[in-house]
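Quick one, C-alpha cells below. Sequence please?
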C-alpha cells in the first residue's frame, strides 16, 4: 500500500487556478442551449474541511460522480485508469463531504469555455490539506480540451487539489491540466449557466446564475 501523501507534496493551503487559464485559440461552437431551471440554494462560502489523504493502490476502477446541483444533476464518468491518483483523491473528498454546499465560483466565456467548481471558500484560493501530481495531460493540439471534458484546475505543475473545471465548448489550452473525466449527463446545465454570463458583465468571473453543488455521490 502506498498513501497518496507519499507521492504528493502535502500543503496546508493551495492557490488553485486563480491566475491563469492559458488559451491557445478561440474554438467555441454556437449551439442551442436547453432550458434549465435552477432552484434557490443555501450554499455559501465556508471553511475548508480537512480530509485524510487516501490510499492509492490498484486495481483502479472507473467511477461515476453524480453532482447534485440546484440546477440539476451533472454526471461525470471518471477515468481512474488514466488518472488514478486524481480520481482516488476526488472520490475521497466527495465521500468526505468536502464538496457539499459549495458554489461554482468561476465562469469563463471567451477563448476558453469552462465552469470551475470545487472551492468551499468560493474565492478560487481554497483547497484541501494535500496536493498531488499531474496525470493524463493532453497533447498540445487544437481543441485538446473538448466539450464535456472535466479537468483539474491548478496553480502550476503538480498542485492539484479539489478545484476542477467542466468544459462546455471545445477549448484549446496549454496541456497543463489533468483530464480525469467526461460529462455524460447534464452538460446542457453548464451551457445554460454560460449563456447567462458572468455576474459583473465581463467574460471571466462569478456566474450570474448561481450554481451550487449540494452533494456528490460516487459509485
Amino acid at each position: 500500500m502506498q498513501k497518496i501523501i507519499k507521492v504528493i507534496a502535502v500543503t496546508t493551503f493551495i492557490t488553485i487556478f486563480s491566475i491563469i487559464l492559458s488559451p491557445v485559440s478561440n474554438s467555441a461552437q454556437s449551439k442551442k442551449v436547453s432550458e434549465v431551471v435552477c432552484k434557490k440554494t443555501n450554499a455559501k462560502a465556508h471553511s475548508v474541511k480537512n480530509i485524510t489523504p487516501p490510499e492509492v493502490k490498484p486495481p483502479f476502477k472507473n467511477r461515476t460522480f453524480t453532482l447534485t446541483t440546484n440546477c440539476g444533476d451533472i454526471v461525470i464518468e471518471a477515468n481512474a485508469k488514466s488518472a488514478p491518483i486524481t480520481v482516488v483523491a476526488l472520490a475521497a473528498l466527495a465521500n468526505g463531504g468536502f464538496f457539499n454546499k459549495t458554489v461554482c465560483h468561476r465562469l469563463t466565456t471567451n477563448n476558453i469555455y469552462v465552469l470551475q467548481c470545487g472551492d468551499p471558500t468560493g474565492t478560487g484560493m481554497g483547497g484541501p490539506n494535500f496536493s498531488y501530481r499531474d496525470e493524463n495531460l493532453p497533447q498540445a493540439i487544437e481543441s485538446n480540451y473538448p466539450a464535456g471534458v472535466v479537468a483539474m484546475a491548478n496553480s502550476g505543475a503538480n498542485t492539484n487539489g479539489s478545484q476542477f473545471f467542466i468544459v462546455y465548448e471545445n477549448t484549446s489550452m496549454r496541456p497543463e491540466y489533468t483530464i480525469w473525466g467526461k460529462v455524460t449527463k447534464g452538460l446542457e446545465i453548464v451551457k445554460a449557466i454560460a449563456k447567462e454570463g458572468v455576474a459583473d458583465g465581463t467574460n471571466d468571473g462569478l456566474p450570474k446564475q448561481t450554481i451550487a453543488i449540494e452533494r456528490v455521490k460516487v459509485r
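Residues 52 and 181 are 23 Å apart (CA to CA). The chain has one domain: 4-218.
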